[in-house]
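Co-fold these.
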Amino acid sequence: MGVQGKRVPRAVREQQMLDAAVATFARRGYRAASMDEIAEAAGVSKPLVYLYLNSKDELFTACIRREADALKAAVRAAVEPDAPADRQLWSGLLGFFEHTAAHPDGWTVLYSQARTVGEPFAAEVAVMRAEIVAFVTGLIAAAARDADCEAADQSLADREVAALAHALVGAAESLAGWNAGTTGPGRPSGKESAATLMNFAWSGLDNLMTGHRWTPSR
Amino acid sequence: MGVQGKRVPRAVREQQMLDAAVATFARRGYRAASMDEIAEAAGVSKPLVYLYLNSKDELFTACIRREADALKAAVRAAVEPDAPADRQLWSGLLGFFEHTAAHPDGWTVLYSQARTVGEPFAAEVAVMRAEIVAFVTGLIAAAARDADCEAADQSLADREVAALAHALVGAAESLAGWNAGTTGPGRPSGKESAATLMNFAWSGLDNLMTGHRWTPSR
Amino acid sequence: MGVQGKRVPRAVREQQMLDAAVATFARRGYRAASMDEIAEAAGVSKPLVYLYLNSKDELFTACIRREADALKAAVRAAVEPDAPADRQLWSGLLGFFEHTAAHPDGWTVLYSQARTVGEPFAAEVAVMRAEIVAFVTGLIAAAARDADCEAADQSLADREVAALAHALVGAAESLAGWNAGTTGPGRPSGKESAATLMNFAWSGLDNLMTGHRWTPSR
Amino acid sequence: MGVQGKRVPRAVREQQMLDAAVATFARRGYRAASMDEIAEAAGVSKPLVYLYLNSKDELFTACIRREADALKAAVRAAVEPDAPADRQLWSGLLGFFEHTAAHPDGWTVLYSQARTVGEPFAAEVAVMRAEIVAFVTGLIAAAARDADCEAADQSLADREVAALAHALVGAAESLAGWNAGTTGPGRPSGKESAATLMNFAWSGLDNLMTGHRWTPSR
DNA sequence: GATGAATGAGGATTCATTCAT
DNA sequence: AATGAATGAATCCTCATTCAT
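Predicted complex below.
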């Protein structure tokens, strides 16, 4: 069945299987993707998939882990460690959008599929998300310190910095999700998406620093 | 099997079935939800579900339509038609968050499940989303006019108002999505979520009006 | 549902149901025809069909009986009792072909469906067939006596007259079956079909009378 | 579950499945035969039947094709190619009756079931039948030429030779059909059935050659 | 390292049939 | 005389998973 040569070393075969699985899970969803389909897409027989990855659940988990690690690595590799905080945030966002654009199936599996399938998997993604939120929170806080060293009520700001980070990550996910569903010339570039969000983050930060808010009773 | 009274008129039974279906689809996802489970949750036998709703696909579609209509109606009912635009936006957001908080299963079905299952269903949700984005775009544009009547470069603003509306809706969806996954005292109230987003919208609007932007080369 | 007036007397309703059932069974076969379909075709609700005809089996049996009786009656009505035997056979065949042509659904139910469904029903048709074969056997025997009064070995002829009758009936059925499957100008008229079979019967009879036979060792 | 050995190669298992399917379809009809029943009769599990034959429709089609091919092959193998035409017809008929007698289930599936189920299947059988009719037409025409080389009105004869062939095939089918329904000592041998039909064919041929016919107005 | 053969379990869908009105 | 409401019992089909080689 496999048109390609046989006797491929295990590590390589496993990556081929994960590639096939990610693509299939992204296109069909966890339940609708069949092990048959994945095995065929990987160019191997079904028992081999089981030999290496044990079960559909473990296969899906392996996909999630691989894609989550790759995404985190891409973001981490994108930030310049010694740059000013706003520059770090900017390059991190850029890394995020460029990676998700380059690996749309991975992003779909993480964002759309894993979170809708249910418990063992959603937790996995939640952990990754928490790490990213923490990372962004740190950057925003640093940026705030850089911008205004004599901030008065730091304790209040902490809580709101976290809210801002959450909102920023949520917005980034939403943008990436809609990007993944868009093809052709209308699709925003990573730079555009990142710039949009930097503007959000910065005006949000301004609001925080100046205590300038919209209120219903205005 | 059904513990409740029998011989219920069709219209009532259909709503019971849709209630059960929305809850089940939200918890399990489209594929994993079985018609057996739904019928049992509705307190009727499976053939009756088929008699009234025809197929799993049509049942799911009926759920999507009902929840989408309910959401649109809730938002529309929340806005005060003659209030100033910012007030309208605020009350619309409030209506949105209160409805999604009150009907988390409906929101999950619309936002998480329908969009990940594939084509006949995703399109249905896309239409609803487009209507909401258009509505929000109108409100933001009106608010911008109210705030600054002599705005110079309106044509540029139009394009960016639309981007802002998209981002606002995306952020609202993301927030509602994470709210739906959160229970207990940590869960933000509808008012909090709406206020957060109004601040986003307002600072975004400020950016638009003042031409004040963050750029990487800064 | 029923577009026609209500409160129809039972005897009439029953015939409407049988009409609908015969048409449906002919088109779909016994198993594939659903009681729903039949009730709808009859313009009544399903419980009414059950009220009058009790079960699908009994309904099918009633169809078979009605169509078998109608066919036998048509053949009997067609023969002129006091005519010479060959003339009687001819008019009987004509009656047979004209009736089956006028009631193709009835013929299909009897010939194609009832015999392939299995036991309670096939027996019903077998009885009808036996009656017809007996009737034809009598006519052929009479015709033979008319044609040649001093026939020598009557006992041998009896066995062969029966074989001829069987073959004639089988051929008639086969012809009617293929006629029922044919529509348009290519379809043979009842007269043509009857003439074809009379020629078969007559040459078969000749063979019997003259002892003139084809044998493999010739 | 299967009492026979396991790990049978695919080609063999497929034939076992077809054997079981032909027997089951013949006894119960297409609709009433369940895949469970067929799988059990084949001594395998249902999924294996689906793995090899894909669906009930395809399984039935495969049965029809196999039985049709076997029947055509049996007839072709029976005729002696260089014998006189009447001898060829005789041996073909003999082959037909012996094959249908040896494979009554196959004949039932072809003749009774496939034709009553509906369109994709009836067409398959119609093609086979057309091939057989063409073959017989050729033999009868040849026999006619052998018997009377100076036949005057060949064009008329052509049309009637075809009619005769049709009638002969119809009669053979009818005979084989009733044979298949008969068991025990009363069942005619293949030789008897073939001889009966040769006599039909020969007297029909005589009628054609001599212009000797029965007419109602006689 | 790799696969052809095989299955238990479950899911969508349909159908004959009944009951309360 | 007639029907809307309701269901138990199949039936077709798919899938994750294993075993022997």
